[in-house]
Amino acid sequence: MNHDMSDIIGKSRALRAVLEMAMKVAPTQSTVLITGESGSGKELVAHAIHAQSDRRDKYFLPVNCGALPETLLESLLFGHMKGSFTGAFANQEGLFERARGGTIFLDEIGEIPQHLQVKLLRVLEAREILSIGSTTPRKVDVRVLAATNRELQKEVEQGRFRDDLYFRLNVMEIHIPPLRERPEDIPLLVEHLIEKHNPELKRHFKGAEPAVIQALMSLPWKGNVRELDNVIEHTMILADGDWIRLEDLPRSLLGGKEAVHAYTPNLKEALKQFEKQHIERVLEQVSQDRKEASRLLDISLSSLYRKIEEFGIS
Ligand SMILES: Nc1ncnc2c1ncn2[C@@H]1O[C@H](COP(=O)(O)OP(=O)(O)OP(=O)(O)O)[C@@H](O)[C@H]1O
Ligand SMILES: [Mg+2]
Fold it and tell me: Ligand 1: does its nearest atom lie under 6 Å from the Cβ of 41?
């Protein structure tokens, strides 16, 4: 899939700052360290930087540095020579070489073992690699983007991450704030996610009711956008109708006390809710006689009609 900046949804000040920085750094050759909690969009931003750079027609190679044992990771990144270890039947090119003018994305860089940290530093400083079993360094043309959900600074203080590598990586840091710190992004994200899942689930949801959006805006989202994505998909599978309603959301989501207390409508919203309920009550009282209701409410008949329309009172 080809990503660009427009795939990154959100209008919060925090997210706009992320986008602005990504746009600025994209056309350079700089190494970028992207930080943020799990599911906050680090890979999405990395991909967008690549897509916005002049390397866009070359490879974007994501590597999860935390997922592989040390020797495998080393061989994957730097390659190996035939016979350098049991099972090395032929020369094998590493990803740094295979990127050939492209971008490599080192995810979970905080997990990279110490001796590979040294080798990585060499790539960043001299743009050269040493394959396992080789004694001649080779030049590579690769841009390095890295990401972590750990606090690398702390890893450095505790001696688990080399400070020279940290300084090299940290020249340009893009921090993506957690979703709960930018709830303004949730309405657009929900809309985007519904549009994304509609075709694959063969559904035709038009959106989510305001109460749903408000409830979602109040949740802590420890798993960030990925968790929101999963909740929306789960809800769309089970719900019917055109609009996602509050009762369609998974019970476990709103069940926690935390969530219920976290949501406080602002004054304008609370007044609107009260206004709607009150109008409904009065209309019921006078058996839907709108003229009589407007008299009791002491508003003109036309503004009563307007409010009925606005609040969707039937
Ligand atoms: N601002 C956003 N707009 C649209 N989609 C987003 C946004 N942020 C994240 N996503 C989506 O959320 C999911 C998780 O994002 P991504 O994989 O980039 O997170 P991550 O930070 O790399 O997570 P991890 O640390 O777990 O690897 C992806 O499907 C991604 O497309
Ligand atoms: Mg990731």
Answer: yes
